[in-house]
Write a structure and sequence with these properties.
11 strands; 6 helices; alpha+beta; single chain; about 230 residues; eleven-stranded mixed sheet
Length: about 230
């Protein structure tokens, strides 16, 4: 669902409500209204995510009822690039073919488990696998595959004609620190800007300095700060 908050008949704020709660341009009054409805419906999501300026006051209201959070992540730089990468893209990066899905899928599970702290297949294996397969079928999954091994992968998780968001950036653990990420992400940016949307975004945990530096090398700029409350 998408909830709207109106003033004098004009939509001023919104909130996407599904597996995640995502407030959009939420004013203080909208935050109160959204939290009230969320509590009345008592449909606790897997996370609350969005601009820190909206997530933190929303969570302040919801925490006494839904807390404690399993993993509150209050400092997540939101980064944007709206031009070609400023470093040379890695030519090995390409869209994942559908017949390569079973090869790449374990890396999706490994990334999610490492980043989120839970196994995405626990309780609903088919749901996570179906979503990963959908992105591959759309041509939105990208990887470096050498000798039958996945060295790097990421996906476009959401897109409009104006902008898209990368998710699940993953480098195989034994290849980290070898400079793979920046060139690989640069290649994804180049390909995605040509085929999906001109503005490419992502967000990253504030403590992940290595990832932030890699994205900055590509040309991403920190334009906003997100927060995520994981249950």
């Amino acid at each position: 669902e998408i909830w709207g908050y109106f003033e004098d008949g004009e939509l001023v704020s919104a909130c996407h409500v599904g597996a995640n709660i995502v407030p959009v341009q939420a004013t203080s009054r909208a935050i109160e209204a959204f939290s009230d409805r969320a509590l009345r419906e008592n449909n606790r999501p897997s996370s609350i995510v969005g601009p820190r300026s909206a997530v933190e006051p929303l969570w302040e209201i919801l925490e006494p009822h839904w807390g404690p959070a399993r993993s509150p992540r209050l400092d997540q730089p939101f980064m944007v690039i709206e031009h070609d990468p400023v470093i040379t893209p890695d030519p090995r990066v390409r869209p994942v073919a559908i017949d390569e899905f079973d090869l790449v899928y374990p890396s999706c599970v490994a990334m999610f488990t490492e980043e989120v702290g839970v196994d995405p297949e626990a309780g609903n294996r088919n749901g996570y696998r179906a979503r990963a397969a959908q992105l591959t079928t759309q041509g939105w999954a990208f990887a470096i595959i050498e000798n039958g091994e996945v060295l790097f992968k990421t996906e476009v998780g959401a897109a409009t004609s104006y902008a898209c968001q990368l998710q699940g950036v993953y480098v195989r653990p034994d290849r980290r620190g070898h400079g793979i990420a920046a060139g690989a992400v640069a290649a994804v940016v180049q390909q995605v800007r040509a085929s999906v949307a001109p503005s490419v975004t992502l967000y990253v945990s504030g403590h992940n300095i290595a990832a932030r530096r890699a994205y900055e090398r590509v040309g991403f700029e920190h334009t906003e700060t997100f927060s995520s409350i994981l249950f």
